[in-house]
Amino acid sequence: MTPVSDRNHRITFQRRPQGLPAPGDFGADTTPIPAPGPGQFLSRTVWLSLDPYYRNVMKGTQMYAEGVKPGDVMIGDTVAQIIESRHTDYRAGEFVRVRNGWQEYALSSGHDVRKLDPAAAPVSTALGVLGMPGITGYAGLVYLGEPKPGETVVVSAATGAVGTTAGQVARLVGARAVGIAGSDEKCNFAVRELGYEACVNYKKGDLAAQLKEACPRGIDVYFDNVGGDTLQAVLRNLALHARVVLCGMIESYSLEQPPPGPFLGPVVGARATMRGLVVYDHMHRMDELVRVVGGWIRAGTFRYREDITEGLSQAPEAFCRLMRGENFGKALVRVSAEHN
Ligand code: NDP
Description:
- The chain is α/β, with parallel strands linked by helices.
- The protein has ten helices and 14 strands.
């Protein structure tokens, strides 16, 4: 195969965007088309994937992708067709998923490359539902959300690449999928084409109230692609023992400062689990507590401290000290003497 032109057109990173990215944050240039050396192949980009995480790459906060400096070709996932190969595993004409970035031609050593079968599915799906976004929606929902038949699963950015997968997987495992999307057109598509039972347009009215109506028994699983206000509205509608999968926080990607309140981005990076605790679910373990911790106290391996105030009349002031954080140990009021 031969290249269709003799120049390689590239889009480069120019500068860190302020707020939403603008075309002026990118540059463009042309370079000669490189020739493959031993163990390399040259491919022509057919499809370039646009993914929200590029915004974090431009900000320098993306954890799992190469960084970019001004003048560098923009990084990115692509589907490409091999033009010329000096790699024993790859032949001219084959389609591959490869990280060519935002350019027409690139060399590859075969690292992080997946061969594609155009007969199995359109090759563009290797960047969408059968690629990185697809595995995100599928694995995130199945293994972290653990939806059960009959449960209500809410998915934000419901018609996007990740949401399309998460929502339909929810439906196909027998759960009730409810989408959140940013227009009536997207919501209609979510219901008619993707099989969501309902879809809420968050740009119309009070999202928490709309979710309450769409999910009368509460939300069992929330697959969050957005964060921010959307997450807050969903949290107000959780069912008992709900699971929240923090996948993406696109609402904050173009902000210079994280929004007020706890920023949950590090929870994603750390693959952390946050769970609600209500003591009353554990009261049947009281005998266990007394046996285990009581044993440690008697053995001298467990210490505790009490902050004792004398006299009931001092209780209000003692309580106020507690609420000012001035107690040191378990706050108690000695109301009368202990008689054995
Ligand atoms: P999408 O195709 O879903 O496109 C992004 C969508 O986000 C928009 O179409 C929009 O849909 C929605 N959105 C909501 N609020 C905003 C906002 N304030 N600004 C811009 N868009 C907004 O993208 P993907 O499917 O590729 O990705 C979805 C999410 O998953 C992203 O947050 C991404 O970063 C994350 N992700 C996380 C991965 C992980 O490993 N944790 C891996 C891959 C993706 P609408 O109008 O319906 O709201």
